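Quick question, first post here. What does this chain look like in 3D?
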Amino acid sequence: MRWPEIPLSILLEDSQNGIWGSPPREDGSDLPVLRSTNIHNAALVLNDVAFRSVPEKSAKRYKLLDGDIIVTTSSGSRHLIGKNALFQQPEDGQRYLFSNFTLRLRPRRDVISPRYLHLYLNSSKAKAELLRLQNTTSGLRNLPIPLYLAQAVPLPPLSEQQRIVEILDQADALRKKRAEADAKAARILPALFYKMFGDPATNPKGWPVKQLGDPQVTTINPRFSSAGVSANTQFSFLPMADVDEVWGRTIGRQVRSYSDVMRGFTPFQDSDVLFAKITPCMQNGKAAIARNLVNGHGFGSTEFHILRSGPLATPEWLYALVRLLWFKKQAEASFTGTVGQQRVPADFLARYTIGCPPIGLQRRFAKALVRLQEWVDQTDQSRKSLENLFSVLLYRAFTGDLTAKWREAHMKELLEEMEQQAKALNLRVEP
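> Answer (accepted):
Ran it through. Tokens below.
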């Protein structure tokens, strides 16, 4: 039996961009609007939701329902285009809307399971199609929606879709348990920061107040000295995608010649803190300490600000500071530029005032950070094994291999279902 491949648009009741609304009134009438920053690892995270004022008529039109899929259509970072999540109504009972830089897909439940479609859109096959769109659309920063909706989706009968979902969800449950353990671990560092240094918003310990741009604290975006550097000298290279937003570390090991990076890239050196300045990378926590660079230096995305610690600061303290939710909220408030291409200006960092703890206390904090990062590195294999297992199952699911034996045992019923699907879609069934 060969599954038909159907254009995504035909499998949808509706597809439309969202709404941003007006600034909140803060009178109890504002509604939560989900943005691309609320999508992490193909799931929705609702701990940083924007509330906006939206007219009632528009609120009804853009209200999300169970089974809707939200897709990022515009981003300052190319690799975030197309990331998506399945909406399931939270227990808070609020009406959730979706922003103008996302696309809502509402699947036709008579022919396709929303969860099946969501899993497919995160499969290697669908990601390869997205990559093809990126490679054929120069400088893609916006999803080419007509082409995206034209992509072909393999369509087994609904009962087989459900079987695929059941198997994949069992594997996904293991990933979620791993993610929950990781989330608890990720909360350790900010909690320790507040315990050791106090709330930076109020400086209860009375540390001397300094500006981050004070050379004794930090040099913002230091320049690179090319003295004695040949065109063939090798340096580390770090695109935005090679910074892990979950753990705040570098995950790539790219190397390039100086002649390839001497123009159009941001220079940094060992122990510098890299801080993503563009939305949504900044809000997502893309920051890291540069370590073990080739020849002690590296070059990377122009969307990084670089913080080089001075005598009064350690890289670890600066790194933990810029990853605090409180700091990121203030950085977001300083954004300049158009929506979707907003950035934190360098002078926000330079003028930012902060209570500066004693350097000895910062070094104690640095040791704790090193221990946490060692734990992350040690548990990497577990994460990779679970991710690899899920990736293999995803691949097998959408080639038909995963449910081949089950399909043989239910052939008669499946053929009847495919006939019903074909009628609904005005298609001809091929055995």
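The two ends are 5 Å apart (CA to CA).
The longest strand covers residues 12-17.
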